Amino acid sequence: MHNAYIYDKDHKRVGTKTLAAYTKVDVLGATTKLADGSLVYQIGDNQYVMADNIDGTVRTLSHNAYVYKTSKKRADSRVLRKGAKVTTYGSPYTFKNGKAYYRIGGPSKQYVKVANFN
């Protein structure tokens, strides 16, 4: 669901290659913790991907929120209501308008402002 870097067991990036969003990835076993406490999936010999990029994190909205496809355009007329649980993927994106957004769906671009969550 989110572009992902490949890390080693010390949480250092392995090369400059990234896994694009919606790329099928075969994981080896369940999530494990790295030395710094990060949850990851092992995808190869000393190669790991952050679990949040694959599984997502369930967050609760503290405000009603629109779904956006860019910093200025809404994805549709949908309104997510306060108290709704939404799965977000990866770390926030910062758009040109300077505001941070979580990716929430796909394969078309769907984002919700970070400020709408607790």
At the first level of CATH, the class of the largest domain is Mainly Beta
Measure the end-to-end span: 22 Å
Count of all domains: 2
CATH topology of the largest domain: SH3 type barrels
CATH architecture of the largest domain: Roll
Radius of gyration: 15 Å
Report the strand count.
11
Helix content: under 10%
- Which class best fits the helix and strand makeup? mainly beta
Annotation field: number of helices: 0
Provide mean pLDDT, rounded. 89
Provide a descriptive summary of the structure in words.
With 118 residues, the protein is mainly β. It folds into two domains: 4-53, no CATH class; 57-116, SH3 type barrels (Roll). The chain is 0% helix and 49% strand. It is built from no helices and eleven strands. It has strands at residues 4-7, 13-19, 32-33, 39-44, 47-50, 57-60, 65-68, 74-80, 85-94, 100-105, 110-113. Strands 6-9-10-11 form a four-stranded antiparallel beta sheet, with no helix packed on it. It has a three-stranded antiparallel beta sheet with strand order 3-4-5, with no helix packed on it. A two-stranded antiparallel sheet has the order 1-2. A hairpin with a 5-residue loop joins β9 (85-94) and β10. The mean pLDDT is 89.
Write the topology of this structure.
Elements: E1 4-7, E2 13-19, E3 32-33, E4 39-44, E5 47-50, E6 57-60, E7 65-68, E8 74-80, E9 85-94, E10 100-105, E11 110-113
Antiparallel strand pairs: 1-2, 3-4, 4-5, 6-9, 7-8, 9-10, 10-11
